[in-house]
Amino acid sequence: MLDDAWCVGVRKGTYSKTRYTIGVDMSPIILNSAGLVFDIVGAVLIWIFVVEINFASKEKYLKGNAAIELFDPTPDKIAAYKRNVLMSRVGMVSLIIGFILQLASNFCK
Hints:
The chain has four helices and no strands. It is an all-alpha fold.
């Protein structure tokens, strides 16, 4: 079980032997809700910015006669690709934080 400093919160400015705590009331409901918000934000970021690497034309692929077409990327496309990779990783980190918060809410008193 987590101690009361994580679940109920301690008033701002108090000092415990293990850590300096902030005055945020972290009840299990708030932890669970914060975790859910992080999960939703992470899922939306991944959904929007996930990088789909597909070199074949979808119409030709569905008909069974697709060919791979490779072009030299422009600097703009390289920048967009790097941004999409970064934002999808931020989304994944947000999902992990959300899951940890939801899991921690189960161990609060």
